[in-house]
Amino acid sequence: MAVEPLIELRSVNKYFGDLHVLRDIDLTVGRGEVVVVIGPSGSGKSTLCRAVNRLEPVQSGTIVLDGQPLPDEGKALARLRADVGMVFQSFNLFAHKTVLQNVSLGQVKVRGRRKEDADRRSRALLDRVGVADQADKYPAQLSGGQQQRVAIARALAMDPKAMLFDEPTSALDPEMINEVLEVMRQLAAEGMTMVVVTHEMGFARSAAHRVVFMADGRIVEDRAPDEFFGNPSSDRARDFLSKILKH
């Protein structure tokens, strides 16, 4: 199907010193598409995810969001970042603020909403991710799975055009992983544009429109999940899958 591009990376290169971590990356994510990025550790997956909203600056190439090239810095970049929700491995909630305050803060500061309106929206989103009853607690009083669901609500509160997930379940205990993936599956079903870096192959199979497999800083395969898991075309992907799927 023809999809309207929302995120475009063209010939993107990124170095950490002498280490070439992203090599000539070309990737287009259509509006409403869920793209899952997988690959071995050190393949550049998280760096790719963080480059999309310039948390990692790149040395060359262009990144376009909704038709606009990413600004380098300043207010224009802050505005654009607000359009791209980011969920990290480590929650990144403010420990000294309640759950409700965590979700409302960006709406007031960046989106300019009145506190009452922000709080109303926050409560609705906390309900949507299944933690409405935790609104007045502090992050330390919540389980890891609950904290990550609050982080998703906080990102959604900004009404983003796209959501980036950088290994959102890798810091969680096994029994909490599914409660977070369930929220993400729901978002995918509702048409949210998502780029998800994850080791959760079940999620990749069930929720992704495309699986992007990275190795050594390059995109090696970019295919529909059935094709990728059923018949990977590269030795590198076959080797990776044979190690990860036998668990």
From TrEMBL:
Transmembrane segments: none
Keyword Transport attached: yes
EC main group: translocase
Pfam families per UniProt: ABC_tran (PF00005)
SUPFAM superfamilies from the UniProt entry: P-loop containing nucleoside triphosphate hydrolases (SSF52540)
Main location as per UniProt: membrane
Gene3D superfamilies, per the entry: P-loop containing nucleotide triphosphate hydrolases (3.40.50.300)
Protein name (Swiss-Prot/TrEMBL): ABC-type polar-amino-acid transporter
Source organism of this protein record: Streptomyces calvus
